[in-house]
Amino acid sequence: MKKFFKTGKGTMKGLLNSGLMTIAVLAGLFFAGCAGSGSDTGPQDTVATPEISPGSGVYTSAQSVTITCATEGAVIRYTTDGSDPGETEGTVYTSAVTVSTDCEVRAIAVKSGMSDSQIAAASYEFGEPAGPVISSMEAGAHQATVTWEAVSGAVGYDLYYAQGTTVTAAGGTKIADATSPYTVTGLKGGKTYAFMIVARYSSGEELAGAVRTAVPLPTWAAKGGAGFSAGAAAYISLALDSNDNPYVAYMDYASDDKATVMKFNGTGWETVGGAGFSEGSAYNCALALDSSDVPYVAYTDGANSYGATVMKFNGTGWEAVGGAGFSPGSAGNISLALDSSDIPCVAFLDSTSGYKASVMKYSTTNGAWEAVGSPGFTNDQAFSVSLALDSNGVPYVAFTDYEFCAYSGTYEVMASVMRYNGTGWEAVGGVGFSEGSAGNISLALDSSDAPCVAYVDDAWGYAATVMRYNGTGWEAVGNAGFSEGE
After folding, report:
1. What's the rounded Cα separation, in Å, for the pair 470 and 306?
2. Which of 140, 160, 351, 415 is the most exposed place for a label (fewest CB within 10 A)?
3. Per-residue pLDDT averaged across 198-221, rounded?
């Protein structure tokens, strides 16, 4: 172009005539317009869409919401009421925003010389945290395996357990940071345990799930070796203390047939208060432990006309409760129980009533033994007696008495249970409910105070049978005569 405008030798006229001047002028006008005109409507770059974290969801605790934009230098504006933000609408984002109620966060990014970004949105809902659900409980030998379902937002789980049917975080044994499934070991076989899973959240909040129970299985093992007594032992009675350590009372042949009590101390057996502590021979020994694990022993006292005697261990030695031989006559087949106030009660075959059953209870008011209801309250002579007290201290007695037996068509000693109703004794579910003769009867009450009896069942070849009172009558627990032999 320089050579065309270098001199004025008629070249301009030549350019115009040739049309080149027209192109040059138009080109100049175009470039001038691009550089200096403010009326440009051509395409521009767009700011990147903001990113909101965490995303939409249902949460159980407050969330710290961050908003970022990939375009450097862009300004972010946001709203939390669902309205659209813009270049001048909404709050300028400078740091994380905490949300704890249901809302929608909407954000836009803007930058001078660029088109505004698209609007990003995230919705947040908040509900009550859900406790972890224990999906299965599997009991094993002295252990239980707990499996639970994960809950949203939890960062960890703590397992709590306690013996019984309830457990709390304050009163249970804690296993921190447990993972599902978790096996708890070292539990007592045959005891009920309650388990609870607590979920932990980043906020530190803990939420417990529902409690479930399991009964670990017991295993059989000799406690301290077999044959631990000093000599032969008869009339053995067993009780467990609050730590499940066994105590035994028995007639001790090595101590002139007197009473001896021994306990297992964790490694071996030791005598409680000296061997042979009774005044004379001790028949029909019955042992019970009070709420402080103090042992009581009832027995037929050979030194006191074979009457009933109850003795307790006072920490250093044995002492009679209410005097030795307190029954009105000789007492056979003694059974002992303590009420919720640790007051002893005995049932026995009463010689002064034709060996019918009688029950007596120690009175703390006058320091003597008193009859519960009428002495000899059974219909006829009883051959076996077993005593239990319900949760209200009401005495139940199981025994065998003469009743007509449809099985044999003759009178036999059949199982009966009676309870004291406050004024007198009444049969529970009818007298003589066993199918045939019942020997060596033993009574226990379940957690609902329903009586259960075990006995030698003549109708089933002298095998063992257990029956339970269901509220209207007696029914076999499992099969009658379930033992393999007599």
Report:
1. 38
2. 140
3. 82
Q: Give the integer Cα–Cα distance in Å for 46 and 86.
A: 14
Task: For residue 461, give Cα distances in angstroms to 174, 176, 355, 408, 485.
Answer: 51, 55, 27, 13, 8
* Cα end-to-end span (Å), the chain: 131
Q: How many CB atoms lie within 10 A of CB 184?
A: 20
The tokens describing 130, both together, are 């859900």
The Cα 391–Cα 405 span in angstroms is 33
> What is the rounded CA–CA span in Å between residue 453 and residue 469?
9
DSSP bridge pairs for 58: 125
HSE at residue 325, side-chain half, CA atoms within 13 A, is 13
Contacts of 215 (CB under 8 A, 6+ apart): 139, 190, 191, 192, 193
* pLDDT for residue 302: 96
Residue whose entry in the numeric block shows the structure tokens 């080109």 = 27
Tokens representing 412?
A: 């036999």
Is cis: bond before 132, omega within 30 of 0? no
Q: Report the greatest alpha carbon distance in the chain.
A: 163
| pLDDT greater than 90 at residue 8 | no
CB 415 within 8 A of CB 364: no
For the record, the structure tokens of 56 come out as 């939409």
Paired tokens of 116: 């505004």
As a whole number of Å, the CA-based R_g of the chain is: 45
Instruction: Label each residue of 291-355 as H, E or C.
Output: CCCCEEEEEEECCCCCEEEEEEECCCCEEECCCCCCCCCCEEEEEEEECCCCCEEEEEEEHHHCC
C-beta separation of 342 from 323 below 8 A: no
For the chain, the 3-state helix, strand and coil shares in percent, each to the nearest 5, are 10, 45, 45
Q: How confident is the model at residue 202 (pLDDT cuts 50, 70, 90)?
A: confident
On average, the pLDDT of the chain sits at: 87
* DSSP three-state, residue 83: coil
Two structure tokens written together for 161: 């357990």
- The contacts of residue 2 (CB under 8 Å, 6+ apart) are none
Q: Is the pTM of this model over 0.70?
A: no
CA-to-CA separations, 270 to 102, 246, 248, 261, in angstroms, rounded: 68, 11, 11, 9
